[in-house]
Design a protein that fits this description.
The model has no long low-confidence stretch (mean pLDDT about 85). The chain is rod-shaped, with a radius of gyration of 62 Å. It has one helix at about 10-110. About 70% of the residues lie in helices and about 0% in strands. The protein has one domain. The chain is an all-alpha fold.
Length: about 140
């Protein structure tokens, strides 16, 4: 019986199969699009939260970078202060050595000095100079 039929029904069957396949693809694609829209809508709050977290992270990163820059600046200032402190320490060490020397010298000084008593009597001794001259007036 199949041999008596014309071959013209084969293209109709192929076209009908193709149409059925295309319509099933359209249906599946529609279902997938609806499911994707639901998933996307369900994930939207999470996406918004992720965007907000990213924005806040960038703000925190900026603040941390500013703090790191300020810390570096403070560290540089501290290093400069330490360098100045070293020269100040050297000057103070030299001053301390001078003070120690002066203190040692001052410690060796006597507590008091006894002065000689003032003279209450003045003795004046007058002596005649010896004369050895001969004059013609005396005749000698």
């Amino acid at each position: 019986m199949a041999a008596n039929r014309p071959l013209a029904h084969l293209p109709v069957l192929a076209a009908a199969g193709t149409a059925l396949y295309a319509s099933s693809l359209i249906f599946v694609t529609g279902q997938q699009a609806a499911a994707d829209a639901q998933v996307s809508a369900a994930r939207e709050p999470m996406r918004q939260a992720a965007l907000e977290a990213t924005r806040r992270r960038e703000l925190v990163t900026t603040k941390v970078q500013r703090a790191a820059d300020a810390l570096q600046l403070a560290g540089d200032g501290y290093a400069a202060a330490i360098a100045q402190s070293v020269s100040l320490d050297d000057a103070l060490r030299l001053l301390a050595s001078g003070v120690e020397t002066a203190t040692g010298a001052a410690a060796r000084l006597p507590d008091h000095i006894t002065l000689a008593a003032p003279q209450t009597r003045v003795v004046t001794v007058v002596t005649q100079p010896a004369v050895q001259a001969v004059t013609g007036a005396s005749g000698r």
